[in-house]
Amino acid sequence: MLTTVGIVLVLVFETFEFFREVSLWEFFTGTVWAPLFSPRHFGVLPLVGGTLLVAAIAIIVAMPLGLIIAIYLAEYAGQRTRSTVKPFLEILAGIPTVVFGFFALTFVTPNLIQPLIPGTNVFNALSAGIVVGLMVLPMVATISEDAMAAVPRALREAAHGLGATKLEVALRVVVPAALSGIIASFILAMSRAVGETMAVAIAGGSTPVLSIDPTQSIQTMTGYIAQVSLGDTPQNSLEFKTIFAVGMTLFVMTLVLNIVSQMFVRRYRNVYQ
Amino acid sequence: MSAASVGALARWRPRLQTRSRNGRAFLLLCYAATAVGILSLLVLLADTAIKGVPQLSWDFLTSYPSRFAARSGVLSAAVGTLYLSLIVIVVAFPLGIATAIYLEEYARPGPLNRIVQTNIGNLAGVPSIIYGMLGLAVFVRAMSLQRSLLAGGLTIALLVLPIVIINAQEALRAVPSSLRHASLALGATRWETVWHHVIPAALPGILTGTILALSRAIGEAAPIILISSIAFIAFLPDGLLDSFTILPIQIFIWVSKPQEDFHAIAASAIIVLLALLLTLNAVAIFVRDRSRRSTQW
Questions:
Q1: Whole-complex ipTM
Q2: Would you say the pTM of this structure is higher than 0.95?
Q3: What architecture is domain A2-272?
C-alpha cells in the first residue's frame, strides 16, 4: 500500500518540479525530443510514438500466435500434449528480458530481418517488437486459455448437438463466450509491452523520432529513462527530471491499461460463476 | 411445414467436406503456431549456447570485468546477484507472507480490504523501471543510502512484494476451511490455528510461489539501471552500503558494446544466469511435486 503512495508521490513531486520549467503544452504536443542538446526540446510524442510502435509490433506477433495456441490447448490438445507444451511456455515466460534483448540484437536483426529487408538499421523497432511479442506470448496464451476453460461444457455440447464441427464450436461458440478474458489478455500484454525496458533499450536504439518505419532506430519511454540513468547527467538538473515526467506518463498509461483489462476479467468471471 | 421452408431446406447443403477440411486446416495452423512458439525458445537457447559456451571456463566465473573481453569474468556480477537475492529473501518474504496471512486469515471483507487487494494487483502490473525511479528517489536520495547494495536490494524487494503476496494468498486459499473449523472447534485460538495448521499446510505452496518470485528478482535489470549506474565494478561488495553490479546489468553492459567479443561473453554470462534460474525453478518444481504427493485433502 505504501509503495503505491510512494510511487505516486515521488512521480507527482518530481514531475511537478519538471513542469515548473517546461510547459505541459510543450511536453504533450511537441514533436521533437532533445532534452540533452541545445536548443532543448521537450516534446514527449516521439518517445510515446516509439513505445506504441514497439508495442503494436509485439501485439501483432503475440495476438494471433497466442490466441491460436490457447484455442489449441483448450479445445484440441489432449492432456499429454498440454503437459508438454505448457512447460515450454512457462520457460519462455521466465527468461529474463535482457536475454531477449541480446537475442534481438545478435540473432533476430542480423539473421532474420536484415536478409529479408536490406537496409535495416542495426537497432530497429521491428526486432525489439518481435522479441517483446515472444515475451508476452505466454501471457496471452495462458490467460486466454483460462478464459476458454471457464466456458461451460454445456455450451460446447449444445453446439455439437446442432451439428457444428469442432472448428465451428471453437471459433463461433467458445471464443465469443470467452471474449472478455481474451481481450483482457491482449490489453495486459499491451501494458507489459509498453513497460518493457531491457529488450527495447538494447535492440530498439536511442533515436527519438516520430516515425512508423519499423526498420529504423527509435527510442521508447523506458529506453530513454535507461539511457539517462546510465549516462552522467547531473542528478538535480532539468535533464534528469525529465525521466520522472516520462516515468509518470508511462505509469499512467500502464495503469489505465491494467484497470481496463481488470474490468474485462471481472466481466467473464461474473457470467459463468 | 410450409412450402417456403421446405424450399430453403432443399437448398441447404451441409458442405460437410469443406467444413471438415477447414477443421483440418485449422488444426495444422494450431500445430504451426505452437511450433513457432516452441521453436523460437529453442533457437534462442541454442543461439546463446553456441555463442556463449566456448568462453565458459573456471576463469570466466572467477574473474572481474575487464576492458578486454578475453580477460573478463562474472565474479562481481554473480556475487552481487547472490547478495541481492539474500536481501530480497530477508526483506520481501517475511513481509509478503505476513501480509498474505493477514489478508486471508484476519482481515474482514469490506471496502478497505477490496481497495488493498486491487492495489496489490495493480502494483504487480507497474513496469519494473518505475520501481527503479521509486528506489532512486526514496532509498538512494531521501534515505541517502547512495547507490548501494542495500538500496538495490530494497528496490527489488518492493518489486517482488506484490508477487509474493499474491502467490502466498493463493496457497493459503487452497487450504480447506474444514481444517480451520476443526482446529477452532477444538478450542484453538485463531493464532494457534494459523500457526499450527494453516501455515504448515500452505507452506509448500508458499515456498513454490516465493522461489518463483525470487527467480523474477534475479532476472530483473531495469530498476537496477537507475540504482547502480557504475558500469565497471572490479571488486566484491564489502558491506551493505558498497556499490555493486548484478548479472543482468553486466549482460546489458556487454551487449551494449559494439565489439563482437563482448557479445560473446555476454552470451556466456547469460548461460550463467539461466543456469542459476534453472536451478531455482528445479527446486520450486521439486518442492511442488513432493508436497502434492504428501498431502491429500
A1: 0.81
A2: no
A3: Orthogonal Bundle (1.10)
